[in-house]
Design brief:
38% of the residues lie in helices and 13% in strands. The protein has helices at residues 14-18, 42-50, 62-65, 77-89, 109-121, 137-145, 161-164, 174-190, 202-211, 232-235, 253-270, 284-291, and strands at residues 34-38, 55-58, 95-99, 127-131, 150-155, 194-198, 216-219, 227-230. It has an eight-stranded parallel barrel with strand order 1-2-3-4-5-6-7-8, surrounded by six helices. Helix 2 packs across helix 4, helix 5 crosses helix 6 (137-145) and helix 6 packs parallel to helix 8 (174-190). The protein is elongated. The termini are far apart. It binds 3-methyl-2-oxobutanoic acid. Residues 38, 57, 59-61, 99, 153, 196, 198, 219, 229, 231 line the site of 3-methyl-2-oxobutanoic acid (KIV). 3-methyl-2-oxobutanoic acid is lined by residues 38, 57, 59-61, 99, 153, 196, 198, 219, 229, 231.
């Protein structure tokens, strides 16, 4: 399956995202912050795209949010392709970035490039996101060489959940902060066009943002990043269980959906749904047929 690139007025592109980097020089005007949300399916992608979100991230969070896995680790490249295609079909303006899932870039550089190429060629992704800092320098450089724009992701990287020992804020000690700065710089020098900073103290995220010349996209990294990303289901009140401190909920869709479904069940059970106005009506011919006495079954 091949995919056609989206071009046209207002299309968000990788150079466009790079140009939204806020510079600390006194003469430069502050740039509009970059908005990024996760999207996993066609109707949601269409809504977010039309609402003006800059980047639609087909995150491997799809595993936990939509597929019901306990972590992001089981997500496969085929699952990512399936969801990336759907998001691509619903998107005209936003930049579509697909996560490379755990295992798809850990075996060899060749296999990793092959998997990233699939996300672009078969899925319609315009860039891929890769978790990890210094360790990913070679891979990021190879992907960029293969014309695949890369978004880095440092700080809390959910694919390293076992190594990190849980979902904790990263970079809290001086040593950890130094490593995080090295990671962010490494991702930049390897050629990434942006980097996600996840669960990082706000002052450290602000310092990294100031030091880098590529945009930082924060999630739980405070207000000074060049952009922000959230898992859409957190914003819509659709996630169950623990809600991270940084996830601002704008609407209670779980409540809305439960109320709507309870209303539907009650209406079906009381017989008030469907009403006459929601039914199809007979033609004159059908009415005559229905009024005529039923045919007696013919003997053979
Ligand atoms: O998978 C995802 O949704 C992510 C974002 C939370 C940055 O990586």
């Amino acid at each position: 399956m091949s995919v056609a690139p989206r071009v046209g007025e207002g299309k968000i592109t990788v150079p466009g995202i790079l140009s939204r980097k806020n510079s600390s020089s006194a003469s430069s005007q502050p740039k509009t912050k970059i908005t990024c949300l996760t999207a996993y399916d066609f109707p949601t992608a269409r809504l977010l795209d039309r609402s003006g979100v800059d980047i639609l991230l087909v995150g491997d969070s799809v595993g936990m949010v939509v597929l019901g896995y306990d972590s992001t680790l089981p997500v496969t490249i085929d699952e990512m392709l399936h969801h990336t295609r759907a998001v691509h079909r619903g998107t005209q303006r936003a930049l579509v970035v697909a996560d490379m899932p755990y295992g798809s870039f850990h075996v060899s550089i060749e296999e990793s490039v092959r998997n990233a190429v699939r996300l672009v060629k078969e899925g319609g992704a315009e860039a891929v996101k890769i978790e990890g800092g210094e360790r990913r320098i070679e891979l990021i450089a190879r992907l960029v060489e293969a014309e695949i724009p890369v978004m880095g992701h440092v700080g809390l990287t959910p694919q390293s959940i076992h190594a990190l020992g849980g979902f904790h804020v990263q970079g809290k000690t001086a040593e950890a902060a130094r490593q995080l700065e090295r990671d962010a710089r490494a991702v930049q020098s390897a050629g990434a066009f942006a980097v996600v900073l996840e669960s990082v103290p706000r002052d450290l995220a602000a310092r990294i943002t100031e030091k880098l010349h590529i945009p930082t996209i924060g999630i739980g990294a405070g207000p000074d990043c060049d952009g922000q990303v959230l898992v859409l289901h957190d914003l819509l009140g659709l996630t169950q269980g623990h809600k991270p401190k940084f996830a601002r909920q704008y609407v209670d869709l779980s409540g809305e959906i439960s109320r709507a479904v309870a209303g539907y069940c009650a209406d079906v059970q009381s017989g008030s749904f469907p009403a006459d106005a929601e039914s199809f009506h007979s033609t004159a011919e059908l009415r005559d047929y229905l009024r005529a006495p039923a045919l007696v079954k013919q003997r053979s």
